[in-house]
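Quick question: who can interpret this fold?

. . .
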Amino acid sequence: MATEIGSIVITPPHKPSYLHNPGIEPISALTVGQLVDIAADKWPDKEAIVSVFQGHRYTFAEVREKTDNLAAGLTQLGLKPGDRLGIWGPNSTQWYITRLAADRGGFIAVHIDPMYQPPQLLHALTKVGVKLLVCPGDSFYERLRVIVPELDNYPESGAELSSAKVPSLKSLVVISDKQYRGAYRYDDVLASALPATVKKIRELQTLIDPDEGSCILFSSGTTGQPKGALMSHRGLVNGVFFPGQWFLPDTLDGALVLPVLFCHTSGLMAGIMGTVRFGATLILPSATFDIKKTLEAIIKFGAAMTLGTPSLFVDMITIARQEGLKVTTLKTVAYGGAPCPVQVALEMKEVLNIKRILPIFGMTETGLTFVGKPEDTLEQMTSTSGCLCYHTEAKVVDVNGRMVPMGTQGELWVRGYSVMNEYWGDEEMTRQLITKDGWVKTGDLFILQEDGYGKVVGRINEVIIRIGDKIFPTELEEFFQEHPDVQETQVFGVPDSRTGEEICAYFRLKDGTTLTQQDIVDYCKGKIPDYQIPRYIRFANTFPRSPMGKVVKSYLLQTLLKEIEGK
């Protein structure tokens, strides 16, 4: 507010778009391996993990025993602290044990997407120099043979490998009862642990520095080949503790059902790190994404929590209604990857009986930076990305990197303990992402609020520019979600030689409803500017999804472009 003093009008400077949440507890110096010890000592007889599809159930004490034995077995195969241990495959108890064994042994776990085909697998293995790979047999082994044809020259037993395309790879461990050429069997490695080696693994726990790398997560970013983000023990341990205080304690008297893959950030942090840190039971309903099995597991085990994208919960609501499944125990669900419309949130509460719906926001390279709180209102649950996490800084800047006024849209930058150490072997890309003073340029269009909350508007590279007008897909998706017959909407830009870009909107309708393209246009009239009315309007029964449940808009765009080219 301007103040007049004599003939001089003094206007105070605007409040910059900057937040810092100092937290109420200090940052921890524990490692992930030490979390395993704490959990085994505190809850020895409590079930740590239950794999429904495998029939496996392990307590926290059993998890420590298995992880130490596997770490010892891998050490005996030649792995040393700092070596990269690749884990490639769908969810399983073996994946879980291998991941924690890496931390106990001081190895760096390399998370490899099970969807990777030979070219992507080759890049992952060579980019970070994987020394030992753990994976299932069958199709995984066959894909590996494409890039390591030398496997055919080995006997049906484990051996020290020599590969022309992947020179770093020295050992292969296959999760299978079957014997494969050049591969050790997982159970044999587990059983091979010598007491003296196990003793060394346990003595190692106080020698691993929390600032050292715990794992490498692949992040494709916006262009080029996937980049390997090196995440520290310090970042992971604190990155699950501080945000987790707002939602994971609900699982202490229940369980967490995990529908997403371990290889991705949400599967790692909530599924593995979170349950170990808070002593919760982790339920694996299936090896890969399966809505019905997830619902059945929630009901069977009386789960208190699950997580996913809004699209996943839309599908869950549909299946629950179709199959007559009654969900009554969910206290909290965490969602990310896209905004959650109010109507979807209301249906989640009605059909799935969910008490709290908490947004979570972050990226592979930063971990969680904004998380909803248990006491949030429905409006905060659906209209914000949550509250800034403890010990984290955030600011919103313009194209020149200068802070904009509070409440103004710009690019979100964050800084804090959970930021990755580096992109492995890529100093230039690391410098492009992280400034000299530690700020990560997220590439997200964002608005900060004075109350500590924030809201993502969209990705900078997803903004549609049509004859100079900027259109934000997220805003249009929220607008269309208010239509009573619309279940889900996906909006994206389509290249156009005359206007630069045109708008395409794909609609998924509620059961028993029908709409035409003209119905959509009529709905828009008088409610949004004409330039925001989509030129391309399409309908689909299902949307293509990533292993994390996110809708893959690039597939929809390619489908539309093929249609346009064919006309």
